[in-house]
Amino acid sequence: MTGEDFVNQAKDLDPKLQRIILDKIERVFRTNAGRSKEELLPLIKIDLENNLFTYPHDDHSHMEPIDASKPFGNGDKIYDFVDYNLPGKPELEKHDVIGPIFTNTNSSRDLDKKKLLETHPELKEQILDINSFYALSFLAQDSGGQEGYIKQPGSLRVGSQETQAVTYLIKKGQTINNLKIEVPTPLAKEQYFFKKWSSQLPTDGKLEKDLVLTAAFRHDKHKNTQAFFTGDPKDLDVNIGDYSVVNFTTLNHGKLNYKGNSLAGFSFRVRNDLTWKNVLDSGFIFPTPVPNDDNIEFIRWGGSVDFPEGAAVNNKVEASIFLAKFGLKRPIIGAYVPSDAKNPTKADDPKRLHPNSVTDPYDESKYMTIVIDAGEHATLRTHSTESRQLAFVVRQGTTWDEFAKTLVNVAVIPEKGYVYKGHDLALSKGSDKVQPGVYKEIVVEQESDKDKKPSQDNWLDEFTKAEDKDTPEKTDGAKPGKEAEAEKPAGPKSKTNSPEKADKEPQNATPISPSTDQEKPNKWHLGDDEPVSGEPAPLPPVSEEDGDDLLP
User: Fold this and answer.
1) Which of 92, 201, 295, 466 is the most buried if burial means most Cβ atoms within 10 Å?
2) Taking the domains of the chain in order of start, what are their residue ranges?
């Protein structure tokens, strides 16, 4: 019928079918806005018998199914662009399972729903919508051209029927365990044996998609081949289908050593019907990660699956890549400005230097966070940033004298009307280990000239070598020359630095002074034995972004 006929006969059709066709006609009107309905309706062809809807578009026509869940066309012809992955209407189907359906093929491509309808047209009489079913198929694998194998080393048997492929159509929502489904029995030809099914039925018995289980057959000579090997499989008499490729590799900062060979990676073929424990018991050894130098350490193995250690040794071998992760061992990885001033030490701070950084990776379990806070009336200035807080990623076990070398390049800049008085942390000994936490600077209101006393600006002297005293002075702080000198408190002892106050506080308190940055030559220490004079090396990077994350 034409579109005009449909308008006159629509009342005689099923209401759902009416709605589908009306929607299509309205779409044709919208896509041909320059043409009248009177012109378009005679050009629309509706073939209910063959499920065809033909409609005009510019100077040509298109054809599509009326009901996309069903095959369409002339006779048994099924058009390639029919959608066979729709939800379907399982509640309308009369059968919970249809089959067994026997097909003489060794190819899984012949077992999809489209092909099944072509090779078994009788199925159309038993179903309303093919999408209401999942296809569960069992297939006898051919030899795949394996040298020395016959083409069909095995077959499948269901009841008294022997075939190459068996399919059941399972209505969606049904449980396989409750249906009368006979799993085929694999039959191997003489000099061959059944090896395994390619996969297993779902343990809960519920299908979520079409599934093909393939029966693999092997020649008797391949019953007990070696557990693993390297090199070209053509040099060995094995069936390559019994092996999975397992790669061990590195990215940077180290290599792998295997039997005296040091390379960036090694590749093995390992039998995939074995557990890793079986493979290890057969003599397999993992490549040994070797850092590039003493400042690098091996952290752990990462990879696409769990590394076979601990309980994971009982896992079956599968194709996988294992990556040896290396990290830096230096005392201080770097610095960053915390994103949350109220919780600056949180481990998941997005600005924290990422442990999987390409250039500066580190073992997160061996590092902690130290935060220096200048308070409400000052900022911390480095050569690349100025902020109230600065966080450092510091290795556990680092001493205060090592950490102090980094602070040579950090200046405390008070607001106008305020003066820097020191640090609230009592450093008992430079050899004591740094503890994680937030350490605040002491910045107080500027005292009158008569009350000022010289500020304690030599706190770093105990951490630097005596020869530094003879180094020519160089200014590089917030205020040069006389302005910087003018900020030094003078006059009688203030309450902050009075003997009475000192008696109540640890005697070894050592304040950080901004003049340190101004009056001493630029130096950069990062755990070196000797300071490097002259232009400073870059401060550990102040990160605004995460480092590169290569692995999970």
Assistant:
1) 201
2) 3-65, 90-222, 228-328, 332-543
